Amino acid sequence: MLKKKKKENTDNTENINEVNNEQLHDEGQEQAPVAEATATETQQGTAAAPTAEEKLKDELAQANDKYLRLYAEFDNFRRRTIKEREEARKTEGKDVIVALLPVLDDFERAQRAMDKATEVTPVKEGVTLIQNKLKNILGQKGLKEMTSIGNAFDADLHEAITNIPAPTDDLKGKVMDEMEKGYTLNDKVIRFAKVVVGA
């Protein structure tokens, strides 16, 4: 009888130990996910809230990127502008030259006509017509002749070659003769008139 009771007590103790082990095992499994979840939340919290140093580094990187892009755009613009200026310089007088080509053609025709001409009068008339055509084309481009003879000498318009005695007092300080015509382009002097002034 005594042996039977001891056996029952041993069996009960083993059952209790097994139950306790199972409970501890279950609690460990339940606690492990909780611990893992806490670690994950901690990591997410760190990733979601960057430090001030990281923010500054990010802002610096963005500013540096913008600066490099802006510098590259400006460099491209500068190169393109230099190229456009060079091309413009090469063709800046193109419209004037194209307008003068008919005058050049007229001169060539006049030369051929002079080879066969027997009279001077038609040749002179032809040259006068070509000269008038040339003046009209240049006038359309803004070129104007200065009128100097009889006007008072003006250092902004005239270049005095020499002085001669004025025949009358009212011609003193005025342009007596013109050695080379002066011209303005769109009201700006491009060549001074070379003149003789009365003294």
From TrEMBL:
Q: Where in the cell is it found?
A: Cytoplasm
**Disordered: where is this region?**
1-54
**Which BP terms does GO give this entry?**
protein folding
Alphabetically sorted, this entry's keywords are:
Chaperone, Cytoplasm, Stress response
Name a single GO cellular component: cytoplasm
Q: Which Pfam families match?
A: GrpE
Q: Where is the composition biased (Low complexity)?
A: 12-22, 30-51
Molecular-function GO terms, alphabetical:
adenyl-nucleotide exchange factor activity; protein homodimerization activity; protein-folding chaperone binding; unfolded protein binding
Q: Which domain of life is it from?
A: Bacteria
Q: Which InterPro entries match?
A: GrpE (IPR000740), GrpE_CC (IPR013805), GrpE_head (IPR009012)
User: What CDD domains has UniProt attached to this entry?
Assistant: GrpE (cd00446)
Looking up PANTHER family in the UniProt record yields: GRPE PROTEIN, GRPE PROTEIN HOMOLOG, MITOCHONDRIAL
Its family remark reads: Belongs to the GrpE family.
Oligomeric and partner information: Homodimer.
**Task of the protein:** Participates actively in the response to hyperosmotic and heat shock by preventing the aggregation of stress-denatured proteins, in association with DnaK and GrpE. It is the nucleotide exchange factor for DnaK and may function as a thermosensor. Unfolded proteins bind initially to DnaJ; upon interaction with the DnaJ-bound protein, DnaK hydrolyzes its bound ATP, resulting in the formation of a stable complex. GrpE releases ADP from DnaK; ATP binding to DnaK triggers the release of the substrate protein, thus completing the reaction cycle.
Name of the protein in its database record: Protein GrpE
